[in-house]
Description:
- Strand 3 (44-54) and strand 4 form a beta hairpin.
- The chain contains four helices and 20 strands.
- The protein is globular, with a radius of gyration of 20 Å.
- It is 12% helix and 46% strand.
- By secondary structure, the protein is mainly β.
- The relative contact order is 0.16.
Amino acid sequence: xxxSRKIKNGSFWxxxxxxxxxxxxxxxxxxxxxxWMKHPYKDRFFADPFILKVTESEIVVFVEEYVFxxxxxxxxxxxxxxxxxxxxxxxxxxxxxxxLSYPAIIRKGNEILVYPENGxxxxxxxxxxxxxxxxxxxxxxxxxxxxxxxxxHRKADGNCIMVATKQPDxxxxxxxxxxxxxxGPFKQIGNKPFQPDRSCAxxxxxxxxxFGQLYRPAQDCVSRYGAGTAIMQFDTTxxxxxxxxxxxxxxxxxxxxxxxxxxxEGLCVIDGYGYLYPTLGxxxxxxxxxxxxxxxxxxxRR
Length: 302
């Protein structure tokens, strides 16, 4: 990647952590200071984090990894030092000819199931996590349709619902699906999207509960893909929801977007979107820089 491309490249994501519960988020309607993962890579980004486990010394997450010069995206397991947030180990879990992202986790007894987004393949598969080999194995189809950032929630009665977007409007028009089991098959509820609003349609992490209420995180894609995360209060009886608030990026380094949030064992993980070189990137995108670029182009055309 050329240096000029690096300066203006906005597709640089990283994951970050804070000691925070769903109740903290709903009560404060904001996030505290984020500790961003430290890693040595400049040729790739990490996004869509889901926490597998948290110990006294380590955090283990499943994420999308995207190497700029070697697409498509793949799913990796990262082991991170809990105190320093420094990446310790990386394992490649799943690579396919088509793009992979959003490795959502299902905990089913002692079994870990993962159903990553693979819309380009035209179906949604669920995999078993092989902990010994750090691999996703034994794929089984749970929905025979291209869906994006599908997220499953098991209701109190044992039935499951799933929210996902579809082509050609995968940044808006969220559809609702149902199934008797995690493994599907999932069937769409109704013919129309239950949430057509681009500011709160596409999923942004697992459903979570706080103070006896269920919440659905959703991406705000109005200004750009994943610009923020809307927190929606969701009613599984009526399948209706209302927006409570929207989280916006506050980090200097990752000021362009925030599109995934998940919780596990008192820890919150998010991802942040920014420039590879934050100061140069901000200057490049500033209004003054835009004026200068227009003037230069005008002179060159003469």
